[in-house]
Design brief:
- The chain is of the alpha/beta class.
- It is globular.
- Belongs to the bacterial solute-binding protein 1 family.
- Pfam families: SBP_bac_1 (PF01547).
C-alpha cells in the first residue's frame, strides 16, 4: 500500500469525525483541526476525547476531527510526517517530547502567551520542557502510580496494608501461598507485572520502585547535560528486590516477562494475582470488572534507602509543526488545559478518563470524583519524578527495559553487573545525543 493510500486508510478506519472533515498540516484555517490521541479506537477514552473536542468546537466555533490510535502510534506519526501531513494536534505521553522534538514535529510554546498558563502546576510545566530549557507542549494530564490491591484477599490472609518493602513482599507471598481466593488450589500470585520489553514496559514498571528508593536512571547536571545513574546502589537495590520476587520468592504471575500492560490488566481482572502497581486510569475499569468492595489503592511504600517517590507521567498537548491553523492549535491547547477542558477529560468517576489528575489548580479533584481512592494518586504526585528532558528518552527507556527484563527472566543473572553494563550503554546513548 502506498503511503498516500495508507494515510487515507488510517483516517478512514480510525477517525472519530465530530464536525465535517479536514486534514492537518497543509490546509487553510477553515479546515477541521485534526487531533490525534493515543487511545484505542471506539474505547471509552476515545469517546471522552471526542467530547473534549466537541466542547472546544462549541466554545470556539473551530471544527475538529479526532483520530484515536493505540497500536504503533509513533510509527503512524512517522508515516504522516513522511507525507508532510502531520495532524494539527497530538495528545501524547510526556516522555515522548524529546523524541518528537528531535524529529522536528512539534512547535515551541511561549508559556507566557498561553491563556490560563499561570493556573497550571509548575511540576506539570516541567514535563513540557525540552533539553534546551524551552517549552514544547502545554500540560494536559498528570499521573503518579500506586498499588491497586485485592482488599478481599488481603483481609482473607489477615494482613495489614504494607508500610515497607518487606511488608509488601510478605503480602505478595501470602497471596501466592495462602489461597486468598478460597478455591483450594495454589493458582494465584502476589504481583502482576508488565515485565516485557515492548515500549520499554519493564523499565517503566520498575521506575516507581526505583524512585521510591531514591534511585533514578538519568540525572540532569545543568547546562543541558545529563549523566546515567543506573549503577547507583539505590537503583540496583530496587531492581534486585524485584528479581527476588521473580526468582526467590516466586510471587510474580507466570509469563510476566513476556507481558505488556494489555495482558497484565486481564491477568489482574481474572484473579490470577492481587497486587498491581499501576496508574489511576485503571481504577474505574477494575472497580467495574471486580467490584468496588474488592479493590483498594495503597501508596507505594518508601524504599529502605530513600524515597518516597513514584514515576511521574501524563500527557501533553503538542502543537504540531506545519499546521495551517496555528491560532486554532493554541486555542485548543488552552481549552484542553482550562477548567472546562480538564473537567470533561476527567470524566467524573466513569471509565474513559483522559485527564487522570488535573494540571489546572482551579479544578478540585474531590469535587469532580467521589471515589476517595483517587486521592492516593493525587497525594503520590507530590513526590513524582518525571523522565528528564534529554533529547530523546525513548532509547534510554528501551535499553533499560532490555536489561531489566533480562535479569528478571534469568535468575542466574547478576543484577549489579548488569546495571553496571547498562550504565555504560546509557552513557554512550547520552553521548550520541550530545547530552553528556
Amino acid at each position: 500500500m502506498s503511503r498516500q493510500l495508507l494515510g487515507v486508510a488510517l483516517t478512514t478506519a480510525l477517525a472519530v469525525t465530530l464536525t465535517g472533515c479536514g486534514s492537518g498540516g497543509s490546509g487553510s484555517g477553515d479546515e477541521a483541526l485534526e487531533i490525534w490521541i493515543r487511545q484505542p479506537p471506539e474505547s471509552a477514552s476515545a469517546r471522552t476525547a471526542a467530547k473534549l473536542a466537541e466542547g472546544f468546537t462549541k466554545a470556539s466555533g473551530i471544527r475538529t476531527k479526532v483520530v484515536a490510535i493505540f497500536d504503533d502510534f509513533e510509527t503512524k506519526l512517522q508515516q504522516q510526517a513522511a507525507q508532510r501531513r502531520l495532524p494539527d494536534i497530538v495528545i501524547n505521553d510526556t516522555a515522548q517530547l524529546g523524541n518528537m522534538n528531535t524529529q522536528g514535529w512539534i512547535r515551541e510554546v511561549d508559556k507566557a502567551r498561553i491563556a490560563g498558563g499561570d493556573q497550571l502546576s509548575d511540576l506539570a510545566w516541567q514535563a513540557a520542557l525540552g533539553s534546551d530549557g524551552k517549552h514544547y507542549a502545554v500540560p494536559f494530564s498528570a499521573q503518579s502510580f500506586a498499588l491497586v490491591v485485592r482488599r478481599d484477599w488481603r483481609e482473607k490472609v489477615g494482613m495489614e496494608p504494607p508500610a515497607t518493602w518487606a511488608d509488601l513482599a510478605r503480602l505478595a507471598k501470602a497471596f501466592t501461598d495462602g489461597d486468598p481466593d478460597g478455591n483450594g488450589r495454589k493458582d494465584t500470585s502476589g504481583f502482576v507485572i508488565p515485565a516485557g520489553t515492548k515500549r520499554g514496559y519493564a523499565s517503566w514498571y520498575a521506575a516507581s520502585l526505583i524512585h521510591a528508593n531514591g534511585g533514578d536512571f538519568v540525572k540532569a547536571g545543568g547546562g543541558g547535560r545529563f549523566a546515567s545513574t543506573v549503577s547507583d546502589p539505590r537503583t540496583v537495590e530496587a531492581v534486585q528486590y524485584l528479581q527476588d520476587q521473580f526468582c526467590t520468592s516466586r510471587t510474580v504471575n507466570p509469563g510476566a516477562v513476556s507481558n505488556d500492560t494489555t495482558v497484565t490488566h486481564e491477568v489482574f481482572e481474572k484473579g490470577q494475582g492481587g497486587i498491581y502497581l499501576t496508574g489511576p486510569w485503571m481504577l474505574a475499569r477494575f472497580v467495574k470488572s471486580l467490584g468496588t468492595d474488592r479493590i483498594e489503592v495503597l501508596p507505594v511504600p518508601k524504599g529502605p534507602s530513600g524515597g518516597p517517590g513514584t514515576l511521574g507521567e501524563g500527557e501533553n498537548v503538542y502543537l504540531m509543526a506545519g499546521s495551517g491553523n496555528e491560532a486554532g492549535q493554541q486555542r485548543f491547547a488552552e481549552y484542553a488545559a482550562s477548567p472546562d477542558g480538564q473537567r470533561i477529560g476527567m470524566n467524573k468517576d466513569a471509565d474513559g478518563a483522559i485527564v487522570r489528575l488535573p494540571v489546572n489548580s482551579r479544578v478540585d479533584l474531590a469535587a469532580e470524583r467521589q471515589d476517595p481512592r483517587w486521592k492516593v494518586f493525587q497525594d503520590s504526585y507530590a513526590h513524582a519524578v518525571y523522565a528528564p528532558p534529554v533529547p530523546n528518552w525513548a532509547p534510554i527507556r528501551q535499553t533499560s527495559a532490555d536489561t531489566i527484563n533480562a535479569v528478571w527472566a534469568d535468575c542466574s543473572a547478576d543484577v549489579k553487573a548488569a546495571m553496571a553494563d547498562l550504565h555504560t550503554k546509557l552513557t554512550a546513548e547520552l553521548q550520541s545525543q550530545k547530552a553528556s
